[in-house]
Amino acid sequence: MEKASTVIDAGAVSIAMDYRKELMPDQGLMIQVYGNVEGEDTEILRFDCFDQDPHYHYGPMNHNVRLHMDKTTVHNPVGWTLGQIRHKLPTMIRRAGYDQLAEKVEANPISNSKMDEIDSVARDKSQNERRFVHHQMERLLEGDKIECGNIRFGLEYRELANDRGLAIHVLTDALGQEFELLAFDCFENGPHYHYGPRGQDVRIYWDTTTAPDTLRWTLDQFKAGNLRSMIERAGYPTVAAAVDESLVQALMPKIEARALELVAQNNKAPANDGKKTKAQLILELESLREQVAAL
Q1: How far apart are CA 203 and CA 230, in angstroms?
Q2: What's the alpha-carbon Rg for the chain, to the nearest Å?
């Protein structure tokens, strides 16, 4: 791993930090401890304070022992990491395999004022450099927000510069504003969905080999009763607990019909060419399914 761009000289070691948000399923502050080993600037420790998989490395350029933080006991990975650097740095450096550097740090520990500076920069970057997505829903038509108890579904057909497709937004009201809990972007080229787009923004890209019809996959999750657990994973357990599952299921035919209608409206074949679009075929297939179910 390359050295982070924000570097604070702390005597025998330097502390480097970057907020990593290029990893779509995860994000968080990376804190590295560097030291001079035989004339080389060497990464001694690395703490990846990620939302989903927080972990740390002893000797990334040596034997690279990787250990996971227990999210049940380590509630704030950044705070936990700063505590280890403040109180246990020589011991950790020694375990990483750099005894001489550990002795230098013991002889010249990081001062309290320098540690306070590191703490301040780390917490600022962790809070203010987060990746989040705020879908404006500018193409959402009047009437395409479907109320469902403490949540609502917003349906819109999105047109991007290089992609297009139906988006389903799962919304609630919080602190006097509408808040997006989940977003399913059933696009043609890069289909993906978000857990908590304005929070942790866990973004997962569908494997279109196993889920070739991402809109159908999304609707099937709702029908299978998975919405409550998905909202909980997004970080909103109190909202999830109050979801009226019977009402969700009662509204599913309306949501499904409107979703397929929007796709069909935006994917019409040119006039008189005699060809049917994928969306039109999907609508016909759904009609056939309903007819078979009625038999």
Answers
A1: 13
A2: 25
The answer to pTM > 0.70 is yes
Whether residue 237 is predicted with pLDDT greater than 90 in this model: the reply is yes
Give the Cα separation of 120 and 142 in Å (integer). Answer: 46
pLDDT above 60 for 71: yes
Indicate whether 271 pLDDT > 50: no
Residue 276's pLDDT is: 55
